[in-house]
Amino acid sequence: MNAYSSLAVAEPIRPVEPVVPEAAVAAPMVRFEALSKTYPAYRDKAAVEALKEIDFAIARGSITGVIGRSGAGKSSLVRLINGLEKPSTGRVIVDGREISALSGQPLRLAQRSIGMIFQHFNLLSSRTAADNIALPLEVAGWTKADIRTRVAELLELVDIADKHDRYPSELSGGQKQRIGIARALATRPDVLLSDEATSALDPQTTRAILDLLANINRELGVTIILITHEMSVVRQLAKEVVVIDDGRVVERGHVADIFTHPKHPTTQTFLAEALGDAVPVSLASRLVQQPTSIGQAVIRVQVRGTDAGDTLVARLARELSIDVALLSARIDEIGGQHVGSLILGIPGGEASARQTLTYLSQQQFAAERLGYVA
Amino acid sequence: MSPELINLIIQATGESLFMVSTAALVATALGLPLGIFLATSRKGELFAAPAVNAALGVVVNAARSTPFIILVVAIIPFTRLVAGTSIGSGAAIVPLTVAATPFIARLVEAAIREVDAGLIETASSFGATPLQIVFKVLIPEALPGLVLALTLAVVSLLGYSAMVGAVGGGGLGDLGIRYGYQRFMPEMMLAVVVVLIALVQTVQTIGDHLARRLNRRLRQR
Q: How close is the nearest chain A Cα to the Cα of B207, in Å?
C-alpha cells in the first residue's frame, strides 16, 4: 500500500498539487532591476539603446517566454542573465547573486549554474556527441570517470543514447539540439536559457524539442527562459510571457491572459500571426475597398473566450436570415480559452453587412469589415 | 651520373631537409601562438588588445613584404648573433625561421578566424577561461585548416631553402647553383629540380591526407 492510497482512504480525494517550495514564491530565479543596455557608437554605427527600463522578475521553476521581433532586445536580455554582457545601468540578479557585478573566476563559477541552448546548436564539429556534452564538465574540472557517468545519464535524459560516438555532421537538427540541451544541463544548472532554440527546426521536431524542455522543467525543476519570435513556441511551452518591443517590456503575464486579452499593439500583431487572424493571401488579393453590387462584404470576427464562436455562424444564419459564407477560420484552445478568428462573407449588400456588424457588437464580439469580394 | 655526384645530391637533400624541418619547427612554435593572438586580440575579442594587435600586425606585414633574399642579407648581424656564423646550413635556419614565422602567423590567424564565433560564445556561456577556449575549442576546431597552413608553410620553406644556397647556405639550391649553373651541368640542375619537386609533392600529399582525415570526422563518414 503506498502513501497515495492511504491518503485517499483517510481524506476526500483532491487533486495532487505540484510541490513548490515556499522559498520559490518569495525569491525569484532572475530579477532585472532598473536595467538598461546601450551599445556605444562604433565606427560608422550609431549608439543603440537595446534595452530600456527593464524591471521584472522570473519565478523559480517557471517557463517564461520572452517574445519580440528581431532587434527588439531579446538576445541582449538573455546574454545579461548569464553575464556574457554587462548592463549599462541597473542590475541582474540570478538566484540571489548579482551576476552583473561579477567578473573573472566568480562569474565563470556562476555561469556553471546557467545553461544555454542556441538556434544553430553551436556544437564542436571536432567532437563526438558525448565529447560535446563533456566539454562544460571538462571546463569545470570534473574527473574523467565522473564525466563518463554524467554524460551517459544526459544522453539517456535527452533520449539519444545510441548517438554517443556520432559527430554532429552525422546528426539531424533535432538530434543536434538534443545534444545542445544535454550539454547545457551537464553542470546541473538552475536556469536554462533558450535563444531561438527551435527556430532552425521543422514544426514536428520543434514540437518534440519543446516537449523535452517541458519534461526537463517538470522533472528537474529547471527554470526555463525561452527567447523566441514565434508565438506558437510560447503557446506550446510557456506559462508566463514577456513581450518586448523596441527595448521595453510592453506587456507581461500569464500566457492565457495575454492570449485572450492582448493590450499592446505588438502583442496583438504577434497573436494575429500565431492565431491565423491574418487574412489568407488568396483572399487578400481579391479584396477591394469599394462595395460590389453582387459580391460579399468580408468581416473578421475575433474569438476570445470560453464558448465563443462555437455556434456563431449558425446563429447569424438563423437570426438574420443571411447565407453566411465561412471564408477562413482558426480557433485554438489556450489555457481553457478559445482564441482565434473567423472571416465571414456576408452577401446582400451594405444593409446586410451593417446589420451583421450591429448583431456582432450586441453579442460582444470584436468585428471589423476588411473589404469586399466579388 | 657518377656516384660522387649522387652522393652530393643525397648530402644536399639531407641539408635541405635539416634546414627546412628545423626552421618549420621553430617558426611553428613562434607563429602558432602569434597567429592565435592575432586572431583573438581585436576589439571585443577573447584577448582584446587592439593596440598590441595593430602593432604586431605592422611588424608581421613588414617582415612578410621584405623579399626573402634581401631579408637574408639584412639580418646577417642577427644571424651571427644567434648561430655564431652567417654561412652554412645551420646559419641559414635563422633567416628561414624569421621569414616563416610571420607567414605561419598569418595562416594560423586565418584558420582560427574560420572558427564560428558562436562556439566561443557557447564556451564562454558555460564559464570556460580564454585559455580553455583556445585549447578546447579554437585549436581542435581549426585543426584541419592549421594542418593545411603548416603544409603550405613547409612547401614555401623548401623554396626559400633553395634560395639560401645563393648566400652559402648549403642544401639543394646551393648544389643547383654551383654545379648546375656555374659548372654548366644541366643534368645536375635537372636532378636538383626533380628532388625538390618530389619533396614538395611528398609534403603536400602528407598534409592533404592528414587534413582530410581530420576533416572526415567533421563532415561525412
A: 18
